[in-house]
Amino acid sequence: MKALIMSAGIGSRISRYLNNQPKCCVKIDDIELIRYTFELLNKKGIKDIAIVTGYNDTYILDALKDFKFKHYRNNFYDITNSIASTWFAQDFLDDSDKILTEEQKECIIVNLIDMMLSDGEADEYEEKLLDHIIEKYDFKREKFDIYKELMIKKNDHSVFN
Questions:
Q1: Do residues 37 and 13 both lie within one domain?
Q2: Residue 60 covered by a domain
Q3: Given 61, 93, 125, which residue is the final one in a domain?
Q4: What percent of the chain has pLDDT over 70?
Q5: Which pLDDT band, with edges at 50, 70 and 90, does 61 fall under?
Q6: Residue 74: inside a domain, yes or no?
Q7: Are 41 and 49 in contact (CB under 8 A)?
Q8: CB of 117 within 8 A of CB of 155?
Q9: Whole-angstrom Cα distance, residue 20 to residue 22?
Q10: Per the domain annotation, does 117 fall within a domain?
Q11: What was the pLDDT predicted at 88?
């Protein structure tokens, strides 16, 4: 089993309280959350781990210096989202189509659609990544049109105005 951890973002809602460190480096009982996550994954036998970093990643890399993992960096973390970070780690996910069930693949795609549309609309790179994954998993894009429509409605904040 594999784990891909997304830790590139600034964490804009909480960053003002964190003294420029990534939110995954917040310490609880003197252990960084990211270190605790790696320890749990290792205890569960998950050793094939990759992480995508960006914002002030020296904090993250220092917290993980005792662990083995594959590292990817999203240098555009301040203008992109998790979809872009996934794109940087796509080679880590290349064989995931062999180990996931159909239902798991569908859930990944639906979650990607939700993330893509969380800010209102998907950009060109997000659409390309989605197309790549749908094709890799041997689905037809039309299968997910209803999910896209639902996510657009779910993420429509105009109802609060």
A1: yes
A2: yes
A3: 93
A4: 94
A5: very high
A6: yes
A7: yes
A8: yes
A9: 7
A10: yes
A11: 83
Structural domain range at position 151: 95-156
Whole-number Å distance between alpha carbons of 9 and 5: 12
Q: Mark whether 2 and 65 lie in a shared domain.
A: yes
The answer on 130 and 76 residing in a single domain is no
Q: Which residue shows structure tokens 């970093």?
A: 53
**Environment class of 1 (CB within 10 Å of its CB; exposed 0-12, middle 13-18, buried 19+):** exposed
Over 80: is that where the pLDDT of 99 sits?
no
Domain end call among 46, 61, 93? 93
Burial of 19 (0-12, 13-18, 19+ CB in 10 A): exposed
Kindly state the average pLDDT of the residues 62-79.
91
Q: Round to whole Å and give the CA distance between 155 and 121.
A: 9
CA distance linking residue 137 with residue 106, whole number of Å: 9
Residue 151 CB-density burial (10 A; 0-12 exposed, 13-18 middle, 19+ buried): buried
How many structural domains are present in the chain? 2
Question: What residues contact 129, with CB distance under 8 A and at least 6 apart?
Answer: 83, 84, 86, 87, 90, 112
| 3-state DSSP assignment of residue 37 | helix
Place of tokens 């189509």: 97
Cα 4 to Cα 91: distance, rounded to the nearest angstrom: 11
